[in-house]
């Protein structure tokens, strides 16, 4: 039974080898720069520096609105099926309020039928759909001249129903909004619908119009001089506000609360991402081991990029505050050297205790045999 010391030494060596090679314990940056891993994937290591931020800012293409959106300007409102009109003929209440003057205005309204026509006494059927209010007023006045001398006609729309904007996604209310005689802008429609701030992704709002899709960053637009006021809506438009469940970064390693972080705007800085997880673990994090891992769709054609921040530098906080992370990024904070040693000891102790107990048991057994 003399093999126990040898077993103990061998066990410690095996455990030491396992701890040193345990994945995730430390990222050897010298082996990442433009080299291939065991799986054939290629990586490049890029330090996060003020020079890198300046280069990215210079190469960034400012996002602009599609000219087709800003060029559209609403014309006069055109009457359509479903609209309800209140037609006034002055000094002729029998025509203006056939249901009685005590009734509400809507009860005396004239509905534009699905075929675009409406009926009015002494006028008959009128093809109202497609006309402006002024055009319909003129048409009714001309027809009434056969029965009324110099008729004075006024028309107002008491219910707009023919032109609507539909909404979907992460709005508080997705009820359709009507186009009226007052032009409706994108900002007004979004404000009326309300944004569910906890689940919405404001960086990629989709406006569908005439079989085309326009992708808009509402957060960026809100910081411009005009914002969404420049985008007028028209009947048939659809606004979709996506959810941010796929708009995430993943913070792992030596932070207070490793987790996936959703964000509703395009811009989330490295400082903000780390801050939401409680920041670096002061007892275990290694200042130089803050990495942002950014993959690509086809790693055979282009290398993935691993950005490294030296958090021990005094300027690191200012640099991290200006470095934007992107959806799908993995932020990894590596452990300090003492943390790796403590982990090694914590993994070694259970095995060494087992060896010690076995050795003591064998010693007691041998002594009992000698008695």
TrEMBL record:
Coiled coil: none annotated. This is Capsular biosynthesis protein. Residues 163-240, 248-333 form the SLBB domain. It is found in: Cell outer membrane. It is a multi-pass membrane protein. Its main location: membrane. Residues 336-350 form the Outer-membrane lipoprotein Wza C-terminal domain.
